[in-house]
Design a protein that fits this description.
5 helices, 82 residues, mainly alpha, 0% strand
């Protein structure tokens, strides 16, 4: 697994960030689709894009990358806003 070259919030679309946050909460594809008002296949496509962009092998890995980056931002005061 490689670290993303850009901050996760910059790298991912707003919808992909929503899908990632729901994955972090433990929601499955169908639950995420219901909450967002989209199909499970659309959620699957968003998840595949997230994995590709972050270089993760699964959603747990993607959540881990996001969580580590978020923790670093909180500790250092650095963020995607610049």
């Amino acid at each position: 697994m490689r670290a993303p070259s850009l901050p996760v919030p910059v790298l991912l679309s707003p919808r992909e960030l929503q899908v990632l946050r729901f994955a972090a909460e433990g929601l499955n594809r169908e639950e995420t689709a219901q909450r967002l008002g989209i199909t499970a296949n659309t959620v699957k496509a968003h998840r595949q894009a997230i994995l590709h962009k972050l270089g993760a092998h699964n959603m747990a890995g993607a959540v881990g990358i996001w969580a580590r980056e978020t923790m670093v931002e909180l500790l250092t005061g650095e963020g995607a806003q610049g």
